[in-house]
Every structure is written in structure tokens, then in C-alpha cells.
Amino acid sequence: MKAAPALRRPVTGVTAAAGFSAAGVHCGIRRKRPDLALIVADRPAAAAAVFTRNRVQAAPVLESRENLAASGGLARAVVVNSGNANACTGEAGRGVARRTAEALARLLDVPREQILVASTGVIGQPLPVDRLLEGLPSAVAHLSPSGAPDAAQAILTTDTCTKEAVRRVSSPRGDYTVGGMAKGSGMIHPDMATTLAFVTTDAWLPPPLLQAALARAVDRSFNRITVDGDTSTNDMVAVLAGGASGVRMEAADGPEAQAFEAALTGVLVDLARAVARDGEGASKLITVEVTGAATEQEALQVARTVAGSPLVKTAVHGADANWGRIIAAAGRSGVEVQPERVAVHIGRVQVLAPGYVSDFSEDEARDALSGDEVLLSISLDQGPARATVWTCDLTRGYVDINASYRT
Amino acid sequence: MKAAPALRRPVTGVTAAAGFSAAGVHCGIRRKRPDLALIVADRPAAAAAVFTRNRVQAAPVLESRENLAASGGLARAVVVNSGNANACTGEAGRGVARRTAEALARLLDVPREQILVASTGVIGQPLPVDRLLEGLPSAVAHLSPSGAPDAAQAILTTDTCTKEAVRRVSSPRGDYTVGGMAKGSGMIHPDMATTLAFVTTDAWLPPPLLQAALARAVDRSFNRITVDGDTSTNDMVAVLAGGASGVRMEAADGPEAQAFEAALTGVLVDLARAVARDGEGASKLITVEVTGAATEQEALQVARTVAGSPLVKTAVHGADANWGRIIAAAGRSGVEVQPERVAVHIGRVQVLAPGYVSDFSEDEARDALSGDEVLLSISLDQGPARATVWTCDLTRGYVDINASYRT
Predict the structure, then answer these.
(1) By CA distance, what is A397's nearest residue in B?
(2) Which residues in chain A have Cβ-Cβ distances shorter than 8 Å to B405?
(3) What is the ipTM metric for this complex?
(4) What sections of B155-241 are H helices per DSSP?
């Protein structure tokens, strides 16, 4: 007996794990594209979330944070709109987020505290709440275990593609799935109110354990595609653990919990890399890998500075093996780099050896810079620690998109 | 009786002050454009300099720092080449800078310790020292009190225009002049080994007093066109005080010294603004003014974050009054901004009033964004302190220039 196609779970995304359905519809905030997504758990799920650290926090961030605290870390649904960030909208905007949660809670017959709300889009414009509320019943009607792709589509803004990821875990206690979706395209400079990610799993963890695992996983994924560790007015990464697989974890230190955290980290790294690759105007994913640092923190600091350098990003765009810009960025990172000990590889081509020795084939280096994935490796020769950061190249497309974003 | 035209001092630049001559010639480091500049004082001048804080320090920076220390703060000449930064060139590069100083010292018959050396251009390539040394006698032969414009030309790289400035001071002790020149075009992102500035004056100050005044003046000028306070492998701002005017200052706290410092600051602000305006690909000078901060440091931090935001810079480029990006940047600055108290003006148009009230004419805002100078004013309403930072818009031209700089 085959399941009906409409009910077949997709292999990836937010309904890859059992016990979740999703939908993505058009409610009219955006002119034509889908702009309203739902993720709904069959029963109350353990929930955890990481929010922006920006002092300017959008209304949906405040609403979701408050609900998560009031529910004791349980959630039944996430509602996301694109096209309007509902940020810098004051008390009126706060009311809009509240009314959205209330309306969805009524439709699903669940407590309002179990609703998470997220928005993405332009800052400082009133969100047309009537359209959103009118669209909610339709979105609920479209909820389906196969709805992940529609939801992944409806949360996009300037993204050029959907971003979904999945990990399947086989454990002594049984098999389970971790799947998720993200949106984000201005991630080179994450001050754009754009990064959202949602993950579901059919494993079960107590909310505090889930929160701790999420915080560490975000630190190794989404916090490594930012230039400066900053987040924006609407950033939010949330995970819902429903438990439909029957796999339950209780202890923070068990190997089971570690395997879950590894899977969660894997999903978030996949999504974060996808966001970096789809950076506005980007033509290449750049991986910056720093080794030989005294501490992981120092490795991260150097990697972030190099990855954040517009001169490095434009050089990669132009396939120019300009290692001088790489070492100059490392030198201003704040880490006590010893420049004469630094080595730099572009892909497998060593463009700089310690002692400022540079003797390489320009053709080979250009080849290593010409694919759609570029690896920059910087060895500091100061210790055992390492870190990796992802970014994209800086192109005319970035300027074109952002010189005409709002209007 | 008129002075011969060739000897007439220009109204601005490094030979506006009496007692200095300058030259700019082509020695062959660059293909065609002038690439070798000299500034020479008639007698030993008090000298002070501020150098890059990058861990990667170019050979001329090391040479100049060492000479300035060895001479006890006296200098007779500055030699500058463009086209090659002599950075990341190891011991060989260090030898090149030393030989340059030695050769000029011999030609001028002065101690080597009284020579400052500066370079700008590509990083990590051996400087063709023979061409530089062969060009030096010609540069010396061209030295002239009217040589400032030639020198200002010879230090440029991707700059589209020369940058010169002057202040004249009338004091109870007599009149004197402070004049200078600068180069720099990648100043939006000052990790490009590009910023050099040289100032001369016919006043006299003891070297320690001159150094203190210079440090404060740089802090209020060149350190306010940087995104993050970072400097690069070759950055250098130097001032030579020759004393030909007869005006001498001895005490750090006297009104005379304050007037000198104000004039020096004025010259450096003019030069810094000129560098920001000529930022690579730039079409507009952007002044970011933060008022109502608790401390000047906090005002500066907010101003730098806003000025460094690529999303703000691209919005200004597109004449888009996207105040959401401005407040989002302020929110991630690290300062405890209270977003609901923030007001934002673009030129004279208030685009955001406290309490997230935004009601303005898009046409007026677009007009305020459409000139070649744009003022963004951010009021925090948290205290009495203020700060100003200068930057430029981010355009496709920036990408075009930097995706093909080295090759």
C-alpha cells in the first residue's frame, strides 16, 4: 500500500520529521509571491529559539520570546510572513504580532503561548495585518506533511532559492530525523533583518536541553556566516522537538544527546552555508579556514575579519590571488598575528609560505578561485586551534540589489 | 619686484609653508604616472608621525619609525613612492627601505636618521629598488618651493584627484601656515595599505608637543573616516615643523599651541574628507553625525557602525531614504541605544521621530540624498555628546576597481 502522494513526507525540510505539517501561501503582503508560512506540530513540541542580539528588536521577536517563556518551552506552531519585517513599528507593530499569534491559536485551538511568530522584509513600514489575518485560514487549510517546500518558498525575500536541510540519526533507542529550512540573502552583512531558520525533529528533548544544544549549534553555524557576530532586528532560529519517533533524551551529557546535537549542528551548518552561498549578488561561496591559532576564539576572530573584508571578497570575485589583502586583514583582526609565520593557501595552491615567501603559479591560483566554491586557508603557526567561517564574494549585483531594495 | 613664477609658493599643499620644497617625478615603478615624491625642509624640522596599528607593518613604516626615534624627532626629508607598498616583503623589503633612506641622505648630505620613507601600492611584490634609486637624483633636481602639486600627484594610486589643504594662522607671535597633502581611495575599508598624509608648517614646536598634537588631530580626522578604527600595512601621517616663520611654541597648554593644533586638525580633516569623498567608486561624500549620546566614545561607535554599513551606503547610493537600515546599524553598534528615542534626519528632512514616528516627503528625502554630499544625523536622546564620521556611498565602481586591482 502506498501513501497518497500528497501526504508523502519530503526527504528534507521542516516536514521531513514525523509529526509536523507545513504550508506556504500568498496572503497579499507581497504582490505575487508566497508570503505566509506555517509549521504546525501534531502535539505540543519542546521548543527552543535563539533571537537577534540587536538593540532594535522587531515585534515578532518580542512576541515569540514572551510566548516561549510563558509556555515553559513548548510550542505548537510557527507563523512566518515575508515582505514586511514588522520592525521599528512601535506599539502598533507589537499589537500586530500579538493578534497574529492569537488568530492562529484560535484556528488551531491551542494556547497563544504555544505560537511563535516571525517576520522578514522591509523595516519600518506598518504590516498590513488584515491581509495576514485573512490569509491564515487558507494557510491552515493547506497544512500538509508534504508542505515543507511551500513553506520554504514563502519565507524568502531577495533569496534566489529555497534552503532546506536534513539529517537522519540511527541510535540505540531508534531512528529519528532533524530537518529544517532557512531564508537569508544579505548575510554578508547581517544587519538586514533577514535571517530566519526553523528546524523540526521527531526526537524529544526537555526544553532546557534543547535550548542548550541549539545555542551551541547556532554558534557553530549561523554565527559563523556573520562578519562581526552581530545579528539584526528580526533574526531568529527556532527548533521544535515533537517526539513522534519515540526517541527521547533526558541527560545533557549522554551520547544520545551528543548525537542529536551533531545532527542539529549539521542541519544548521548546511542551512547557513546555503544562506552564505545565496548572499545578495553572490557568485561564489567562500570558506575561510584558520588553523594554527592559539585559541579557537582567536582563530574565529581572524577568520571573521578575513571573511568580512570587502577587499578579499572583491579579489575572490575577480579571481585575483591577492594574498596581500588576506594577510592585511588578518593583521588588523586584533589577534597578535605574527605575520612572518603566516601561510596562505587558495584551494590547494600555497600562495604564501612563512617568511613572506610567495612563489606560485598564477594560473593554478586563478583556477582555484574560479569555481563556485573557494577555500581560503590561513595558517598562523601559533597553536593548535582552528575555526571556519563562510561568506560569499562581493559583486556589482550586491550594489544593484541594495541600492534599490526599499523603493 | 615679482618672484619668478617657478619659485612662487602655491596657496596650498606641502610647500605652502615657508622653508619647504617638494618634487614629484616618474621613476618607473608605475608604467607612466608619476610615482616618486619628495618633501625637503631647508633645515632640520621637528617631526612627528602616526603609523598603522596593523600587525603587518610595511618596511617603510619600520624604517621611518626607527629613524624618527634615532633622530630624536627631527627630519629633513620625506621620500614617498607609489605603485608598490613594499609590504610583506620580509628582510629584502626592509633593506630596500633602508637603502632608499641612505641614498636620499647622501644626495641631501643629511643624516639618514632624518629621512622618513613611505610607500603605497600593491602588497607582497618586491619593490624595484633600482628604479627608485635611479630616480632619486632627478627628484632632488626638481625640488622647488612650488613643487607641492607635483608631489601631491606622485603619491596617488587609484585616487581620482589630488588632495591638498591649508590653514593660515595669525597669532600674537606672528603668522604661519600649515599645509598638507594626502592620498587614499580605499578608505571605506582601510585595509588597503593606502592612506598617507604629509603636513608641513613654518611654525616650530618641540617634537614631543608636535607628536601629541598630531595624535589628537589624527584621532579627529583620519581615524574618523575609518569603518572600525583599523589601519593598514602602510598607513602613515607625518608632520614637519620647520620654523621658518619665526613662530615658536614651547608649552603644551598655551593658547598658541591650541591654535596650532586647531589649524593642524583643520588641515587633516580637509584631507580626510577629501579621501572619503574620493573613496573607490564613490559618487557621494556621506557625513554621519551622531548627537545626544551619553559619551563621545559612544557617539563615535554608533557613527562608525552606521558609516560602515554597506546597506546604508548602498541605500544612499540609490537615494533611498531607508532609515530602517540606519537604525538597525545603530542597534548593532554595541551601544545601549534606546531605539524608541532615536530620531533620524537626512539633510534637513526628518525621516524618523522618536517613538518610531515616520512621516516625511519621499521627494524631499530623495532630494536630500541626491547631491554629492549627504548628511545623515542620528539623535540618540541619551546625553550631551556627539561625534562625526565621514564615508562615501558603495557603488558598482567599488567592485569593479577591486575585483581587478592587482592583476
Answers:
(1) B396
(2) 314-315, 318, 320, 322
(3) 0.83
(4) 207-219
